[in-house]
Amino acid sequence: MSGEWVVHTDGSGTTGGPAGIAFVARRGGELIEDSLPLASATNQQAEILAAVYALHRLPAGSAVTVVSDSEYLVKGWNEYLPDWRSRGWRKRTGGTPKNTAHWRRLIEAAERHESPVTFSWTPSHAGTLDNERADVLAVRARQAAIAGALTPTCGVDMPEAEPLPGSHRYP
Question: Which residues pair with 14 in a beta bridge?
């Protein structure tokens, strides 16, 4: 089936430690949703990794719009990332942007798809069905991470493959 995937992503974390990531993707009548517990990630890292995970799980070459309630993720992709890359991964004020390795993973994941993958923002907890579902899945995955339900592929270096071997699904 052709058409664009609309993917709602969410990350659930704090300032570090166990976290969860999730996505809900729709294209026409198709639905893919998944979540994954992470051993350690900040909330911002989890937001980026949720998008990375979703882009790796979708069929390569797809047209994709990522929808997130994370301004950090959406503004990072749409506004900051082009400038950082043009300056050799340096901020205007000097110094390296935070989470550079995660942003690089996101670029690699996006490059698997039709260009450009677009990112758009939605308000959190505003009743958007797929955003709310992604939030529930990410929170459940974080709870699983806290309880120790982790896979060998978890952590800030994931995802490595498509789909991730041994990934958990939390309905």
Answer: 42
